[in-house]
């Protein structure tokens, strides 16, 4: 009886394995261009990498192009629900494939920049899915930002057949329990959500204050350091521009913008201790982000059918030792900390010497301007002939 059921189980396992098309077996190869990778299936990514390195990122050193490429990876992937199939198929390219629809949603305001930046390259590379292009370019963008852990990259996403509905992307005006519920519905815990918010260390806002672009979320928007977690915990005293913008609250230094949602993550009882744990802990921040980001990048996709192409990614840039030390921006100190984590004291940090700073705007990349507008109009991938051919054949 016992051995009989084992036989049945083994047979069942064989059937199940046969049903799922296995990923191509790892076979270390030298690709046509001379690059080495552990899996032949990854060779196709090298020409894409070369093209985006030279022509999309160019000389971008964790500036606007990198930030833009990173943000869209989240807005595409989060179109997924563990409980409702109508919420989309996750990291599936739908944000661009159905740009006219999804980019008209208020939560996607500003993602038109990413469409304009990436659409010509998606057109030039019909050999990979739109979904893979978005996530690959985001992984490459991270390697521009000193301080990240070496990212992973899984390859083999299937493109969307329909758009994600409105309501999948959290907004800065949403209350923290609402944001956490949406993230949990997509499969991401409160701790993973805070880990992902480390992305706001290399980020800023173009569309929150109607008069100002490139307003950074911390004083070091081109390094993946822990300053975002320090500065978001300080009492807000000043707006970079006008008051009264939805989703914005006061920041501790002139020139910086603080999102209402980030203020909430730093203070809500469900997230405050996870948030504070990042302060002056570069390794924890980098490792937690890496893990949560890898999970995010495959939401809704069958990872069993995907191939690990992490070794195609360029090496990351280490954070110079001195910069791994978090600090209070000049003009602020320990007294400005709005301590919210009840169990652990806020780390004591040095104060950056010098006069009160004004943080400079992030310089805008002109390639983020184009026919795709912030209301979704003109965000039509099918206007790019090769992209259209490929997506049509998959639909
Ligand atoms: C979960 C709640 C989140 C909310 C409410 C939120 C909200 C925002 C908002 C309002 C902006 C400014 C957009 C603009 O005005 O230009 C922004 C920027 C950005 N966000 Fe988030 N975000 C969240 C999570 C994430 C995640 C998970 C990632 C990536 C893993 C991410 C990456 C970025 C990046 C890189 C930017 C800067 C874009 C640029 O400068 O072009 N965000 N976010
Ligand atoms: C990068 O900088 C080099 C040297 O300044 C310049 O020749 C090149 O055109 C730049 N590339 C891009 C894509 O802007
Ligand atoms: C699933 O999501 C769709 C699209 O947002 C919505 O119309 C529908 O009511 C949802 N179904 C359930 C059971 O929540």
From TrEMBL:
<dbReference type="GO" id="GO:0000302">
    <property type="term" value="P:response to reactive oxygen species"/>
</dbReference>
<dbReference type="GO" id="GO:0034599">
    <property type="term" value="P:cellular response to oxidative stress"/>
</dbReference>
<feature type="binding site">
    <location>
        <position position="94"/>
    </location>
    <ligand>
        <name>Ca(2+) 1</name>
    </ligand>
</feature>
<dbReference type="GO" id="GO:0042744">
    <property type="term" value="P:hydrogen peroxide catabolic process"/>
</dbReference>
<feature type="binding site">
    <location>
        <position position="220"/>
    </location>
    <ligand>
        <name>Ca(2+) 2</name>
    </ligand>
</feature>
<dbReference type="InterPro" id="IPR010255">
    <property type="entry name" value="Haem_peroxidase_sf"/>
</dbReference>
<dbReference type="InterPro" id="IPR044831">
    <property type="entry name" value="Ccp1-like"/>
</dbReference>
<feature type="binding site">
    <location>
        <position position="76"/>
    </location>
    <ligand>
        <name>Ca(2+) 1</name>
    </ligand>
</feature>
<keyword id="KW-0376">Hydrogen peroxide</keyword>
<dbReference type="Pfam" id="PF00141">
    <property type="entry name" value="peroxidase"/>
</dbReference>
<feature type="domain" description="Plant heme peroxidase family profile">
    <location>
        <begin position="70"/>
        <end position="345"/>
    </location>
</feature>
<feature type="signal peptide">
    <location>
        <begin position="1"/>
        <end position="18"/>
    </location>
</feature>
<dbReference type="Pfam" id="PF11895">
    <property type="entry name" value="Peroxidase_ext"/>
</dbReference>
<feature type="active site" description="Proton acceptor">
    <location>
        <position position="75"/>
    </location>
</feature>
<keyword id="KW-0575">Peroxidase</keyword>
<keyword id="KW-0964">Secreted</keyword>
<feature type="binding site" description="axial binding residue">
    <location>
        <position position="200"/>
    </location>
    <ligand>
        <name>heme b</name>
    </ligand>
</feature>
<feature type="disulfide bond">
    <location>
        <begin position="62"/>
        <end position="145"/>
    </location>
</feature>
<feature type="disulfide bond">
    <location>
        <begin position="31"/>
        <end position="43"/>
    </location>
</feature>
<feature type="binding site">
    <location>
        <position position="218"/>
    </location>
    <ligand>
        <name>Ca(2+) 2</name>
    </ligand>
</feature>
<feature type="binding site">
    <location>
        <position position="225"/>
    </location>
    <ligand>
        <name>Ca(2+) 2</name>
    </ligand>
</feature>
<dbReference type="InterPro" id="IPR019793">
    <property type="entry name" value="Peroxidases_heam-ligand_BS"/>
</dbReference>
<feature type="disulfide bond">
    <location>
        <begin position="42"/>
        <end position="309"/>
    </location>
</feature>
<keyword id="KW-0408">Iron</keyword>
<feature type="binding site">
    <location>
        <position position="90"/>
    </location>
    <ligand>
        <name>Ca(2+) 1</name>
    </ligand>
</feature>
<protein>
    <recommendedName>
        <fullName>Peroxidase</fullName>
        <ecNumber>1.11.1.-</ecNumber>
    </recommendedName>
</protein>
<dbReference type="GO" id="GO:0004601">
    <property type="term" value="F:peroxidase activity"/>
</dbReference>
<feature type="binding site">
    <location>
        <position position="92"/>
    </location>
    <ligand>
        <name>Ca(2+) 1</name>
    </ligand>
</feature>
<dbReference type="GO" id="GO:0020037">
    <property type="term" value="F:heme binding"/>
</dbReference>
<dbReference type="InterPro" id="IPR001621">
    <property type="entry name" value="Ligninase"/>
</dbReference>
<feature type="binding site">
    <location>
        <position position="201"/>
    </location>
    <ligand>
        <name>Ca(2+) 2</name>
    </ligand>
</feature>
<comment type="similarity">
    <text>Belongs to the peroxidase family. Ligninase subfamily.</text>
</comment>
<dbReference type="GO" id="GO:0046872">
    <property type="term" value="F:metal ion binding"/>
</dbReference>
<keyword id="KW-0732">Signal</keyword>
<keyword id="KW-0106">Calcium</keyword>
<keyword id="KW-0479">Metal-binding</keyword>
<keyword id="KW-1015">Disulfide bond</keyword>
<feature type="site" description="Transition state stabilizer">
    <location>
        <position position="71"/>
    </location>
</feature>
<keyword id="KW-0560">Oxidoreductase</keyword>
<dbReference type="GO" id="GO:0005576">
    <property type="term" value="C:extracellular region"/>
</dbReference>
<keyword id="KW-0349">Heme</keyword>
<dbReference type="InterPro" id="IPR002016">
    <property type="entry name" value="Haem_peroxidase"/>
</dbReference>
């Amino acid at each position: 009886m016992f051995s009989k059921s084992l036989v049945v189980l083994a047979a069942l396992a064989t059937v199940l394995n046969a049903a799922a098309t296995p990923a191509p077996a790892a076979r270390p190869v030298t690709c046509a261009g001379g690059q080495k990778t552990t899996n032949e299936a990854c060779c196709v990514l090298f020409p894409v990498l070369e093209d985006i390195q030279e022509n999309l990122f160019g000389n971008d050193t964790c500036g606007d192009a990198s930030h833009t490429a990173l943000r869209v990876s989240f807005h595409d992937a989060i179109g997924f629900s563990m409980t409702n199939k109508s919420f989309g198929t996750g990291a599936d390219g739908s944000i661009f494939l159905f740009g006219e629809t999804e980019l008209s949603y208020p939560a996607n305001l500003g993602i038109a920049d990413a469409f304009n930046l990436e659409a010509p390259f998606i057109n030039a590379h019909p050999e990979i899915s739109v979904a893979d292009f978005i996530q690959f370019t985001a992984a490459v963008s991270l390697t521009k930002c000193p301080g990240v852990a070496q990212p992973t990259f899984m390859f083999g996403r299937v493109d969307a057949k329909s758009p994600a509905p409105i309501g999948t992307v959290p907004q800065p005006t949403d209350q923290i329990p609402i944001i956490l519920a949406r993230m949990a519905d997509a499969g991401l815990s409160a701790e993973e959500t805070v880990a992902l918010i480390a992305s706001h260390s290399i980020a800023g806002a173009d569309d929150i204050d109607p008069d100002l672009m490139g307003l950074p979320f911390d004083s070091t928007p081109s390094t993946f350091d822990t300053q975002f977690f320090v500065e978001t915990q300080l009492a807000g005293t000043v707006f970079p521009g006008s008051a009264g913008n939805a989703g914005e609250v006061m920041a501790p230094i002139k020139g910086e913008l603080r999102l209402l949602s980030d203020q909430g993550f730093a203070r809500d009882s469900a997230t405050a201790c996870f948030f504070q744990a990042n302060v002056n802990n570069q390794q924890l921040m980098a490792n937690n982000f890496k893990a949560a980001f890898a999970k995010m990048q495959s939401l809704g996709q069958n990872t069993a059918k995907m191939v690990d192409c992490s070794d195609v990614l360029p090496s990351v840039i280490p954070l110079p030792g001195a910069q791994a030390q978090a600090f209070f921006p000049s003009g602020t100190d320990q007294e400005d900390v709005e301590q919210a984590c009840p169990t652990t004291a806020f780390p004591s940090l040095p104060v950056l010497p010098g006069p009160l700073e004004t943080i400079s705007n992030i310089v805008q990349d002109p390639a983020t301007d184009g026919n795709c507008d912030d209301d979704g109009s003109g965000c039509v991938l099918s206007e790019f002939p090769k992209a259209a051919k490929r997506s049509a054949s998959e639909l």
